[in-house]
Design a protein that fits this description.
Pfam families: p450. By secondary structure, the protein is of the alpha+beta class. The protein has helices at about 35-45, 65-75, 75-80, 85-90, 105-120, 120-125, 130-145, 155-170, 185-200, 210-215, 220-250, 265-270, 280-315, 315-330, 345-355, 390-395, 440-460; strands at about 50-55, 55-60, 150-155, 365, 370-375, 375-380, 385, 460, 485-490. The protein is built from 17 helices and nine strands. The strands form three sheets. It has a four-stranded mixed beta sheet with strand order 1-2-7-4. It has a three-stranded antiparallel beta sheet with strand order 3-9-8. It binds protoporphyrin IX containing FE (HEM). Protoporphyrin IX containing FE (HEM) binds near residues 98, 99 and 436.
Length: about 500
């Protein structure tokens, strides 16, 4: 399968194998509505490392653990950049954030703020009470809905759980429920966030064919600008509200210095800026607010919905999860965060969910900073890298019965604690690895385990009346949700007093 290709700059170098391409479009038209599946078929046909030409952009894709390890760890310094896509420019403050920023001093500074100021163990611990309240709110919401006997929309319930956890930590307020500033603001906020994910996930032709931007028949770029502006209005309002509340606190001599009282926006407002400036630029603060909301909410909500869908489809798995929680926690109290490390079978369920439904099916695309070589093949500078984690989890060379949801396959022979966020073998990669790996993995894992533990401990779950199974069709996006929201019937399984 090794095709000799000539790149304009390096006439004799051999690019990795890949499909034949059309003039101008290259291989663009070979990617359809499910690009992760199209890219997987190309790996089946051409091998573990495939070269594509997408319009005027060089690209590679892989679903192979050793190649992924080489890209993300072995050559981390070459592949740690991001492409400046139009969505990133219009929706992430000109790539001034962390997640979509090209490699360089600005990304390093923003990433350091994330790691050393926002997502520290101490800071995350300081929000454990809020997370506990949100878990209780989730159970009570489902309990109240279960009394009607009607199917519950789990997408709505789990989306609210993730969003509330994130906004309480980030903004100090709940968006859905008693602490909300009003249903209209919450709905608008949720709507605009969904629109943001949709646009960030698009493979927009204008990124690959410059002439396309002149035509833009669906008005994509205009839409990106519109959404970017509406989100910016939200961020401006958030910052103004915080400044006003801090001024009032100062006038009343109240101090917010205790770390446990500071939400993320307060922390950012208190940090010095670059080059000796007293404060960070508002643009940087807005970009970080944006990243925290975008990176934390949908990823955990989508993972929870998939886990619930697969478990409801597999009643044996549900029974085993419940047996484990009953034996570790009992039936007289709710699951607490400190229980989560002891729920090894549930941890296998989450690992299996990530194998089949990774929240970032192509991670966030990486880009090479300079020319390099992988497995002897030439990779030009500025090559876009699609690490196909969806296809990695379904790679038949490394997994058996890939379409079966079987948590037992992750059970460690020595009975040790099941690791969710990383694994040396690179056979699943839910949070990536290397310089760009997810800095929110510990929080993400906690949000996922907690919601699942509570919902499986407190309720029995069945598909809606008349339906024997759960549809697991997916729809491609930056995170990849089920095509249809998950509906299921909940029946309380603990004594009434336990729920209050
Ligand atoms: C189940 C939950 C989550 C999953 C599955 C997940 C997964 C990912 C993945 C796959 C990436 C891309 C890595 C790469 O391109 O190599 C990423 C990046 C990122 N995630 Fe998460 N994530 C989750 C939760 C969170 C949370 C809770 C936060 C923060 C509060 C967060 C913040 C970020 C940030 C800032 C980046 C960009 C890192 C960079 O480019 O330097 N994530 N995440």
């Amino acid at each position: 399968h090794i095709l000799q290709r000539r790149s304009p700059k390096s006439k004799t170098k051999t690019l990795p194998p890949g499909p034949p391409r059309l003039p101008i479009f290259g291989n663009l038209l070979q990617l359809g509505q499910q690009p992760h599946r199209d890219l997987a078929s190309l790996c089946d046909k051409y091998g573990p490392l495939v070269y594509l030409r997408l319009g005027n952009v060089d690209a590679i894709t892989t679903n192979d653990p050793n190649t992924i390890r080489e890209i993300l760890l072995g050559q981390d310094d070459v592949f740690a950049s991001r492409p400046r896509t139009l969505a990133a420019v219009h929706l992430a403050y000109g790539c001034g954030d962390v997640a979509l920023a090209p490699f360089g001093p600005q990304w390093k500074r923003m990433r350091r703020i994330c790691m050393e100021q926002l997502l520290t163990i101490k800071r995350l611990d300081s929000f454990s009470k809020q997370r506990e309240e949100e878990a209780q709110h989730l159970v009570q919401d489902v309990w109240a809905q279960s009394r009607t006997g009607k199917p519950i929309d789990l997408r709505e319930v789990l989306g609210g759980f993730s969003m509330n956890n994130v906004t309480r930590m980030l903004l100090g307020k709940q968006y859905f429920g008693a602490g909300s500033s009003g249903p209209q603001e919450a709905t608008e906020f949720m709507h605009i966030t969904h629109e943001l994910f949709r646009l960030l996930g698009l493979i927009y032709l204008g990124d690959y064919l410059p002439f396309w931007r002149w035509i833009d028949p669906l008005g994509c770029e205009r839409k990106m600008m519109e959404v970017g502006k509406r989100i910016d209005d939200f961020h401006i309002k958030i910052i103004e509200e915080h400044r006003a509340s801090n001024r009032m606190k100062k006038e009343n001599n109240e101090s917010k210095e205790e770390a446990k009282e500071m939400d993320f926006v307060d922390v950012l407002l208190s940090l010095p800026g670059e080059d000796g400036k007293e404060h960070m630029d508002d643009l940087e603060i807005k970009a970080l607010i944006q990243d925290m909301i975008a990176a934390a909410t949908d990823t955990s909500a989508v993972t929870n919905e998939w886990a619930m869908a697969e478990v409801i489809k597999n009643p044996n798995v549900l029974r085993k999860i419940q047996e484990e929680i009953d034996s570790v926690v009992g039936r007289e109290r709710m699951v607490k965060e400190s229980d989560l490390t002891h729920l090894n079978y549930l941890r296998c369920v989450v690992r299996e969910t990530f194998r089949m439904h990774p929240a970032g099916p192509l991670l966030i695309p990486h880009e090479s900073l300079r020319p390099t070589t992988i497995h002897g093949f030439h990779i030009p500078a500025q090559t876009r890298v699609f690490i196909n984690t969806h296809a990695l989890g379904r790679n038949r060379k490394i997994w058996a019965d890939v379409d079966e949801f079987r948590p037992e396959r992750h059970w460690p022979a020595d009975g040790s604690r099941v690791e969710i966020s990383h694994g040396a073998d690179f056979k699943i990669l839910p949070f990536s690895a290397g310089k760009r790996k997810c800095p929110g993995a510990p929080l993400g894992v906690t949000l996922v385990l907690m919601a699942l533990a509570r919902l499986f401990h407190c309720f029995n779950w069945t598909p809606p009346d008349g339906e024997t199974t759960i549809d697991t069709t997916e729809v491609y996006g930056m995170t990849m949700p089920k095509a249809q929201p998950l509906l299921a019937v909940a029946t309380p399984r603990l004594a009434d007093h336990t729920y209050h």
